[in-house]
Specification:
Blueprint (H helix, E strand, L loop, with lengths): L1 E2 L2 E2 L13 E4 L6 E7 L2 E7 L5 E7 L3 E3 L9
Antiparallel strand pairs: 1-2, 3-4, 3-7, 4-5, 5-6
């Protein structure tokens, strides 16, 4: 996948850790990795209403967001 003219590297399980901030490659909310099992990543995030959500994604669907700031107050 190319974004802004640069390829987005594909993730592998050895390149992410619980606590890393990620986003779906197609966009969406900023999520925190809760756990990793093989090539599946359990993520958690808060909705705009403050509701905690979680889901499991194949690692190829995610990209790490470096230096993501927490904007919640």
């Amino acid at each position: 996948m190319v974004k802004g003219g640069r390829p987005i590297p594909k993730l592998t399980a050895d390149k992410v850790n619980p606590g890393d901030r990620v986003r779906l490659r197609s966009g969406g909310p900023l999520m925190t990795i809760h756990s990793i099992s093989g090539d599946n990543v359990d993520c958690q995030w808060f909705t705009l209403d403050g509701e905690l959500r979680s889901a499991t994604f194949p690692i190829y669907m995610l990209m790490v967001i470096e230096g993501a700031a927490d904007t919640s107050d």
